[in-house]
Amino acid sequence: YLNDYMRMSIALSFVAMMAQGMSQFTDVDGKPQEVARSMSFCVLVNIIFDILLVAVFRIGIIGSAIASSLGYLTCIIALFPHTFGKKSSYHFRFVVPGMAEVLKNNIKNGTAMVIMSLAGAAGMFIMNSLVLSSLGADGMFVMSIAGALMSIGALIASGASQAFVAVGTMLWGQKDYKGMRFLFLRCLRLVMIVAFAVTILGVMKPDLFAVVFGADNELLVMQAQQGVKIVILMLIPLLVVSMMPAVYQVLGHLPLAGSLSILFYTILLPVMWIFSKSGTPSNIWYSFPIAAWGAVALSCISVMLFQRKYPQTQPFTLIPTLDRTMNILELSVPCNSDSVREAAGEINAYLSSLPEGKAYLPESAEAVNEILQNIVQHSGMDSSHLVDVRAYCEGDRLEFSVKDNGKAFDPTLSANQKEGLSRVASSCPKFEYKYMYGQNMVFLTYSQSY
Q: Phi and psi for 73 in degrees, rounded to 5?
């Protein structure tokens, strides 16, 4: 079965890679809903053709591989207009000069995830061998549940990690460190809620997991219950450890991301070997929570030591903290005219604190104020909603970003209709708008070199 399935899957693997790659581009381009919709189509088509090819046309396991590829093909078709359309932020072209450097950077940035995948595959093989040799077939049944729990954890952590990489990279490029911390906390909260719910269910109803995964007699259910109760305690710490490499990858700490991505298996395998050789091999299940919590502890120690090189960073996440030397302004402004007038005073005070000799400073203050007034009038939001304003100055370059979650409205297209917006467009050398992740984002860039 495995040979037949893998032979067909490898032959059609370009379809899966194309679908996953397009999903990443579309997600980073601010359209996660389209990714979710296309992947839903993928799963639905996969299920339908599984039934048709395997059960109706009797093609067998090869039919299942073909069904998976047809699902990915559906995903490609659904994402094609967004990935290669005119509204996409990406424009693909084949450039021979510099291709080696691009390939080098891709390999460098993807090494952490490759290491994690290879470590997971090798670790699973060794774990299966240890359990089979010490507990036999019944132990392998519990091990299959443990493997499924790790897969569930990997799926949840992967979703949170991809969200952080997609949005966090954009925020990192804008030096929006406050936004990165907020994003991390939201992702972590979501992961913890799911992990906590699954853990409670596993502790209270371990027999449910045994039945769902195929236990067909009372004796097997009873044998599996104790193992499930212990193994499931690894889920919460495992998700935390699995999510952190994505944060460090965005921040550029690739060696740290790579080492932490294999930390769980590094601890788990020797602990499992020790328990498998003990007088009570059924204690092998304790190695899972021991390894997960041990990985959390070692991760904290490793990050604390690593932070000595980067003292101006947040504990554990290593996201930079703001200080006055960074020349960064961050405001959250209630969506009303009075708050906008107060914000204008803070913006002027910030601009006054910058080094002299920048002729564009008065124009930039007027432009941001015009954008804020425009949001108050046209976003459909009230005072309970906030508009985020950021400014960052480095050298002779000043960058503003204004973000709100009101209805989509592109001021760059309306500049010729509104007198104030027309002044913004004419005075700002680089005036851009994006609607991403449910937010209007306006970017203004000023520089002496323009």
A: -65, -40
